[in-house]
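Q: what does this look like with 2-acetamido-2-deoxy-beta-D-glucopyranose bound?
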Amino acid sequence: MLSSTNDSADYEPLKSSYTDLDAEYDTSDVAPSQTIKRPLRRIVIILAIVVQVVFDFLVIANAIYDTVFARLFALRPIFDEYSASAFIAPAQDALEYQTYKFDSGFGTGSTIYQGEPSDSVDQAWEDLYSFGILEVPRSQAALMVNNTRPIPGKEGYYITELDVFHELHCLNVIRQKLSPEYYGQNMTRLHKSLMRPDHISHCIDSIRQSLMCSSDISTIVWVWEEDTHTAKPSGTVLHSCRDFDKLRDWAKEHHISVHFDDSVYMEDDLSIPVIP
Ligand SMILES: *[C@@H]1O[C@H](CO)[C@@H](O)[C@H](O)[C@H]1NC(C)=O
Ligand SMILES: *[C@@H]1O[C@H](CO)[C@@H](O)[C@H](O)[C@H]1NC(C)=O
């Protein structure tokens, strides 16, 4: 393919265009007056090409700036000022890693979060997140990636929730939605609105994003089962996890201590820049 014949064939169009250009400037049989104009024409053409190239460059550069660099530069202040700590405020002191072995969720590997709906199953779930709404001091609120609201009646404190508790709440709502015969009775207005299809849909998508965000790369393995003579996948393996118990203890210590009146507007001079 890279033979000289093919090479010359590849270059043919280029050559012919040069030839056209040469022909244009071929002055062997033109009048003397045209010969005099020749350098000027060449300068004008070169100038036009330069202007065109500069213009194209500006258009392309502007487009690149708008789509890529403007965002990049705009995001700079947040990443420069807060770096990784921005994403672990305000619970950074409670952040530790722990090795957990997952339960299979089948048979004897079932957990207290499974099974027929009952008061004890409900309680187990509630214990995972019911303290999730928190109050954090202004110094911590200032380290967060987003602005949140000050708490009326609790000066210097701001309201927040660690997303893990929100995701657990969402999973519990989906679980309850699967047993309408049990949870459909005597629902409060709040409970009814949590069971609405749009909230369930929000919850499913929130859990999807959370799973993708944490992207657990622990490995599922295949295990030989003697009784069925087949290799079956098993998830009862070790995972390196953020220590949930520690985060739960930390959250309980920061559980909001006053009723949050969401209808009270609080003046606030804490301002974290917002990037759309
Ligand atoms: C719902 O309320 C009715 C009447 O107050 C009561 O008899 C029934 O046991 C309640 N059902 C549940 C599941 O709590
Ligand atoms: C949180 O911050 C990010 C980055 O500034 C911004 O894009 C997003 O809209 C903010 N969300 C809220 C609810 O303020």
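The chain has two domains: 38-86, 97-254. Residues 1-32, 70-78 have pLDDT under 50 and may be disordered.
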